[in-house]
Design goal:
2 domains; homodimer; alpha+beta; Aminopeptidase; four-stranded antiparallel beta sheet; Alpha-Beta Plaits; globular
């Protein structure tokens, strides 16, 4: 078993210097991983997913990790344990699979032929997966490499889990975590799959919204009718659905499902002040998509709407004839897909039932309603009073021009919820992505600065966790 | 020029006998027409529309009509003039185009492979267009065929106009009627595109609702967004649209567009009494499509809702992701197709403007709205004191088990309005459809009895008009 290395400033400085010197080689390693088209959702790329997993396993083994692949019904898990015997134990999570690349014609280069490009905003690594998540997960691997190279071992006990199905709904993850809980449980999870607040300001995502997806299908007449022959006398399910959807929000933008706000906490004054200091530019954020006015609850800032307030959105709806031209049909069915983003302690199961009651109360005698239940997961709120959070925040602040912030995240990162509910551990979500990384879109990129300073950030965080 | 044939009972009896004997051949002709997929709304079927027109032209020419096709910017008009030189002049109208067939998977046979099927309610001809309108228009053609075969010519002067754009809003019709008014104007129009009051009771439709079709497209963000990243802060156009659609009716079922009821007359006591005598079975009418409760304005009978009250129906709506599964998209656009059935002197142009104002008043600052104007035609109310109406009513009553009735019609037959306003002639609307014909729906059919006795009915009406 290795010695635990020193973690004082001088020791850390040597690690940071090594990272700087090793950057060209680190970039070559990242490019090698990016060349493997590990698209998880399409069976055509199954072998490539396995190749990416094996590449990572081999790299970690080369660093001295006890690394292996665990088969799943889908793509393999890479699991590795470092050699340090002392200090807190962290489990680092990332995913080696990537999104499909279509529409391919919108890429200006082969998505699996990575290159460093000069852009007006700086140098970037261009490839599918550069930011999501290969570039991000390699920041952690490179930080480990530098610590080991410089001091022979890591300052904390490190385990690593790389998944290969994140972009296709992680079907194997929950059973795997349940089966391997004893092996994988650590003091804290580290997740690198999020972004900076802005290019100067690093962020630790401590509030992730949950998600509740629900499909509603209203049936009126048994079959589509002619709106002339039946219009007026026969109940139109599209009209019923429109009224239900319209009732979901009041004029103030509040969601009208009874009990919806019961478990929604107000922001603490401290967090509110922190967020205000961030100087979020709502105008620029909305302006980028052609909008001007925050559309949620009146009296809330755009940042609150995105990070700390629950939402109800219509993601899809359809009824009757939707092709070109016109058809005077009185439809038999009308349906909508609706999702709720959840915060605080909102309970997805309780709200699903409340929503269904809300709908049923608005379905007239001549219509029937069916529900299709889609995904449900609660919000994750990290216990930021855990000393690791403040230690990591200080470490990040040392690396970047501006003070790091605890932020929210409008999207849902289910892995953080699973780590909490299955393994009983909080997650420290730190990532170096930028808003313009084109995740899931053509021409995905990762800034060279994100890769370099991200690696340095993890080197600092590992030292800080050892000292916390 | 042919001799005008005798129109006494014996002459008519010979024609009716010939119709009976010729039924199998008549059915074969109808099937040949039904095999042509003349869907007018979709450019993919343009050639087939032309084929259907040519089929009809050729058939009429074979009967001795001077028949031709007139090109239009859309599908051609079939126009034909019979050879009889005496008596009143009638213009018969029908349409050879049909509705689209989707959803195709709900048909139990190929919609364009017609067949006679035995059903518990009798024998039917099953195909798209069997009732609307190919089967109906062929009842008139077959009646002419029998008169000509038996007596060498027709008892009245007959012109024929078959349109190919009725199911797509008849964009070429008005300019065509204006250009050809002198040629097409007759004493009376005959239109076969309506139904029986019930399977025993033939009907002459003397009140037709008008139609106003309108598409509304609401745009919010410039592109589809991720509902996690933007949900709550970005305006969702589906939510805006749902509120507009929900606002269209109040809780009493009345339409909320300002001024909507200004030109809607109350029924006369006389007509109300006539309609009450019909003994309309609202329960059976709605029960046939799985419904129980008249859904229109409170305090109105179902027959009023269908024949003499205006309506507003959502014919189609769509937004966001409507495929299988779930996608957390915040859509950029949401759209609906809405139609109004008009009565009395409601003005389509005035109501279109009022509706657009109603929508604009409900579009928030961050959304924009576009309108696509679809067809618009006022209601038609016939002058039933014209002696032809009573003569036709008696002729129909001779053919069917029960006395024929003057009825209203929930659908819109804009052609009747155009004949009145452009050519200055009333329309005698007689048709043999039944409520369960599945017009515009999968598995459309026309009863063999409708086809057979319908042909006999026109043979009788032609004689009656000659004697009126």
């Amino acid at each position: 078993m290795s010695q635990t290395p020193p973690t004082d400033d001088a020791a850390l400085a040597r690690v940071l210097d090594r990272i700087d010197a090793d950057l060209p080689a680190a970039l070559d390693r990242l490019k090698a991983l990016l060349r493997i088209p590990s698209i998880s959702t399409d069976p055509a790329w199954r072998e490539d997913c396995a190749r990416a997993a094996e590449w990572l396993r081999g790299d970690l083994e080369g660093l001295g990790f006890a690394a292996r692949l665990d088969a799943t019904p889908g793509h393999p898990m890479v699991v590795a344990h470092g050699t340090a015997g002392q200090g807190p134990h962290v489990l680092f999570y990332g995913h080696y699979d990537v999104q499909p690349v279509d529409p391919l014609e919108l890429w200006h280069r082969d998505p699996f032929d990575p290159a460093v490009e000069d852009t007006p905003a700086g140098r970037v690594i261009r490839a599918r997966g550069a930011a999501d998540d290969k570039g991000q997960l390699m920041t952690f691997v490179e930080a480990c490499r530098a610590w080991i190279a410089e001091h022979g071992s890591l300052p904390v006990r490190v385990s690593i889990l790389f998944e290969g199905e994140e972009e296709s709904g992680s079907p194997s993850l929950v059973p795997y975590l349940k089966a391997k809980g004893d092996e994988l449980k650590a003091d804290l999870a580290l997740i690198c799959d999020t972004g900076m607040f802005d290019p100067q300001t690093p962020a630790i995502s401590t509030m992730l919204r949950g998600l509740l997806g629900q499909e509603v299908i209203i049936t009126g007449p048994e079959r589509d009718l002619h709106s002339g022959m039946y219009g007026g006398a026969a109940m139109n399910p599209a009209r019923v659905l429109a009224r239900i959807l319209a009732d979901l929000h009041d004029d103030e933008g509040r969601i009208q499902v009874p009990g919806f706000y019961d478990d929604v906490p107000e922001l603490s004054d401290e967090l509110r002040a922190q967020w205000e200091r961030l100087g979020f530019d709502a105008e620029a954020f909305l302006g980028a998509v052609g909008l001007k006015h925050p559309a949620g609850e009146k009296g809330r800032t755009a940042l609150e709407m995105l990070w700390s307030r629950p939402t109800c959105e219509i993601n899809g709806m359809t009824a009757g004839y939707t092709g070109a031209g016109f058809k005077t049909v009185l439809p038999s069915k009308a349906s909508a897909k609706i999702s709720f983003r959840l915060v605080g302690r909102q309970d997805p199961a309780k709200l699903r039932a409340a929503f269904q009651d809300f709908v049923r109360a608005r379905v007239p005698a001549d219509c029937k309603v069916e529900f299709v239940n889609h995904s449900a997961g609660p919000a994750s709120v990290m216990a930021t009073d855990h000393p690791a959070f403040e230690a990591a925040r200080r470490a990040l602040s040392d690396e970047w021009p501006r003070e790091a912030a605890f932020v929210g995240c409008g999207g849902s990162i289910p892995i953080a919820g699973y780590f909490k509910t299955i393994l009983g551990m909080d997650s420290l979500l730190v990532g170096f992505g930028r808003d313009d990384d084109q995740l899931h879109s053509p021409n995905e990129k990762y800034d060279l600065e994100s890769f370099h300073k991200g690696t340095r950030s993890w080197a600092r965080i590992l030292a800080a966790l050892a000292r916390a």
